[in-house]
Design a protein that fits this description.
four-stranded antiparallel sheet, single chain, seven-stranded mixed sheet, about 120 residues
Length: about 120
């Protein structure tokens, strides 16, 4: 089994910053990709940013230039630095990882439990 644990959410004023972290643990052989998604009330879950093991990153247009995703491969951790936050960034943020597990060698998708980010105006 693989577990993803997120941390770093909270309440911040517009224009402020937060840093989210997600640590993966368990029966991990390798992690192909890690990423962040978010879901606001009444809306579908949407991609925020993803990063592959080689370091190449992809961002939603709405966060480009404000958010930065980074990855610590040695510790199976991904971070999301969020700057210039806006009220519309308010959502539950979820970590996702595409993991090759040790037992079977198969690749599976795992999600964290989510962390709330609230940006006040």
């Amino acid at each position: 089994q693989v577990q993803l644990v997120e941390s770093g959410g909270g309440l911040v004023q517009a224009g402020g910053s937060l840093r989210l972290s997600c640590a993966a643990s368990g029966s991990i052989f390798s992690i192909n990709a890690m990423g962040w998604y978010r879901q606001a009330p009444g809306k579908q879950r949407e991609l925020v940013a993803t990063i592959i093991s080689g370091g190449s990153a992809n961002y939603a247009d709405s966060v480009k230039g404000r958010f930065t995703i980074s990855r610590d491969n040695a510790n199976n951790t991904v971070h999301l630095q969020m700057n210039s936050l806006k009220p519309e960034d308010t959502a539950v943020y979820y970590c996702k990882a595409l993991v090759r597990v040790r037992e079977t060698g198969g690749t599976y998708q795992y999600w964290g439990q989510g962390t709330q980010v609230t940006v006040s105006s």
